[in-house]
Amino acid sequence: MKNMEVHEALRKYNEEGKRFTYTDYAGWDDDNRYELIDGVVHLMSAPSATHQSILVELSRQIANYLIGKSCKVFVAPFDVCINGKGDLDDTVVQPDILVICDNEKIEDKYCNGAPDLTIEILSPSTSRHDRIVKLNKYLQAGVREYWIIDPVDKSVTVHLLENNKYIIHAYDETDTVAIHVLDDCNVALQDIFK
Fold first, then answer.
1. Per-residue buried b or exposed e for 152-191, using 16+ beta carbons within 10 Å of the residue's own CB
2. Are 119 and 19 in contact (CB under 8 A)?
């Protein structure tokens, strides 16, 4: 299905209460980006220049650190079937940046299960979704570390999984932050907020 057909079908199915899976999602052939949360479609907006600048710099730093190591870094758009159910998963997200250390989870077109690290860069249209909906999905799935980056406040909130709940740490642009799932990997926030 192409653009208008996809939009019309999604609107109709959502009104009827239909729940989608990755199999449905993978068949949508248009230029839009979507996520599925419990089978419900969420349209994603295009990122800003500031968002992209932060994404490129941070992913570059992580990728450089991972040279010669077994973990891999990916950037959006890269699908994550967060519940580990592959084609039958009804929750498919596209974190801005993710790190996967269990290479068994990496399929040709998606990550099947919880990444070790997910990073979301806030925009006005995604702030609530990233801070509440995706935070809860990442917690339930067992994502070990979740960063929320706020480009406006130039701050980072790090959620570290301990005993099935997140311990929260807050940082500003003057701080250097350790990526806890990667030994000795530190990020100077002033570099990503340039």
1. eebbbbbbebeeeebeeeebeeeeebebebbeebebebee
2. no
What does the alpha-carbon distance between residue 169 and residue 139 come to, in Å, rounded to a whole number? 15
- Here the tokens at position 184 are 């000795």
Q: Which domains does the chain have, with CATH numbers?
A: 3-42 (no CATH), 45-192 (3.90.1570.10)
Q: Which two tokens stand for residue 97?
A: 């940046």
Give per-10-residue mean pLDDT for the chain (194 aa). 58 73 89 89 89 97 97 96 96 97 96 98 88 95 97 97 97 97 96 93
Sign, Cα dihedral of 26, 30, 34, 38:
negative
